[in-house]
Amino acid sequence: MSKKKQTLTTSAGIPVADNQNSLTAGPRGPLLVQDWQLFEKHAHFNRERIPERVVHAKGSAAFGTFKVTGDITRYSKAKVFQPGTETDVLLRFSTVAGERGAADAERDVRGFALKFYTEQGNWDLVGNNTPVFFVRDPYKFPDFIRTQKRDPRSNLRSATHMWDFWSLSPESLHQVTILMSDRGLPKSYRHMNGYGSHTYSFINDNNERFWVKFHFKTRQGIECLTDAEAGEVVGGDRESHQRDLYNAIENKDFPTWRVCVQIMPEAEAETTPYNPFDLTKVWPHGDYPLIEIGELTLNRNPENYFAEVEQASFSPANVVPGISHSPDKMLQFRIFSYADAHRYRLGVNYESLPVNLPRCPVHGYHRDGRMRFDGNGGGSVNYEPNSFGGPVEDPAFREPPLSISGDADRYDHREGNDDYSQAGDLFRLMTAEQQERLFGNVARAMDGVPEEIVRRQLDHFEKADPAYAAGVAKALGLSR
Ligand code: NDP
Ligand code: HEM
């Protein structure tokens, strides 16, 4: 306590003599414009907020480790999968629809965004707590998200808009069923699974390609809230997920997930009865069993939320040698979308921010731009090719060619696509009690929705399983 305190300075380092009293003409004022320290303080304050993420604005994050326990080197040459390797990670959880101040315990999908700081660059796996998604064509993403956000006139969230869109987009049924099930409202971020959701690819040392899906199975056990329990939680604590995660880690009760993959040989994608690149579908475990590859542990809270969570940027574009993308249209568009959002939200030099900076050397030719706050490449050569020893490409990192066929066209993604079987499979694996809660959750979520829209949605439930439609209709007090 007796330690001598540091002198307060302005951001230019100039000592401040008085941080309590503005400079005024006489004790009663008015203010003097020459009190530039007062103006600087407010000018900075007025610029403290940056744009929130357009989706997944409310989030919580922690640092930790991914440890490899299995051997999948025959599928992927990625350094991050070498047996025994431990890699530092950042995991940001989020809700999707709410703004930055939204309550945590809401029925919503949860984000599960991982940054692996590997020795060959940052690998970002930007997934959710569900293995599928609401739409399968990126054209529909902004429309879908608007139905989850606020009505332009009332500024309220609109159940009518949600069910209108979903009932006109049957590909959403699988994800809607998960959202309305117990798992659509996790008790905390620690008590849910994570999924890469998309199909990605692995490339091995022989330059062979495999298709892969990532699963993160919680070791804390799945725990969920009913709508009624969530109402009570939110009434008492709007930050229940943030508090739970932060306190668990402070108390050294480190949450862990079993990391698993499903692997499909490249050629098999031609023969599966479903399109393995369709984000509204899972690969059944019976066909592609889970292979355990490692363990993910969160063990350190961020020191500063803004610097390490708000400024964190995750992008599905960031894959490292041995891991790559797939033809999934949604994934393809996400490769563009995230960096675009980061340039808007954080500025063009966002990847040099400490939380985003790779933990391996970075040798590139990007220079200048707003808020360039590192050495900007110093005096090194800034074009390529050059005769001055600048970094050069290495063909050893080339991927095997991907065979593609077909005419360029706008193909109807709903044609010949079975949107019902997997949603029905999920319904049928629920216990009678889980199904009852599903009916109640759907009925509550449909409160105030016009009957025409409700009936259109019931027709989709019917096609997944007649008992699904009957149960929801009963909960709504509607005849079928
Ligand atoms: P399995 O019986 O092998 O697996 C069922 C899966 O469903 C398990 O992963 C289980 O997760 C998960 N599950 C249970 N309840 C819910 C719920 N309310 N919301 C989301 N997931 C839940 O079946 P199949 O692989 O043949 O798939 C059958 C259905 O299971 C699919 O249509 C899909 O809806 C769902 N599912 C499948 C996944 C897959 O990758 N194959 C992944 C997740 C769901 P857990 O093991 O953690 O209890
Ligand atoms: C965040 C776009 C689909 C998971 C975001 C952001 C954008 C975006 C622009 C904000 C990024 C930022 O400001 O940092 C899209 C588009 C999609 C899509 C265009 C479809 C075409 C998905 C899917 C998943 C997903 C399918 C999961 C499988 C996430 C997560 C975040 C996020 C977890 C938050 C990342 C973080 O914690 O910073 N998305 N998204 N998105 N998205 Fe998507």
Brief write-up:
It comes from Alcanivorax xiamenensis. The chain is α+β, with helices and mostly antiparallel strands.
Notable features of this structure?
single chain; 480 residues; alpha+beta; 12 helices; 27% helix; binds NADPH dihydro-nicotinamide-adenine-dinucleotide phosphate; binds protoporphyrin IX containing FE; heme; metal-binding
Beta-strand percentage range: 15-25%
Q: What is the oligomer described by this structure?
A: single chain
Mean pLDDT: 97
Q: Give, in order, the helices and strands.
A: HEEEEHHHEEEHHEEHEHHHHH
Number of helices: 12
Helix percent reads 25-40%
Shape: globular
Backbone structural class: alpha+beta
Total strand count, please? 10
Distinct ligands, ions and cofactors found in the model? NADPH dihydro-nicotinamide-adenine-dinucleotide phosphate, protoporphyrin IX containing FE
- The low-confidence runs, each spanning 5 or more residues with pLDDT under 50, are none
What is the CA-atom radius of gyration, in angstroms? Answer: 25 Å
Distance between the termini: 74 Å
Largest sheet: 10 strands, antiparallel
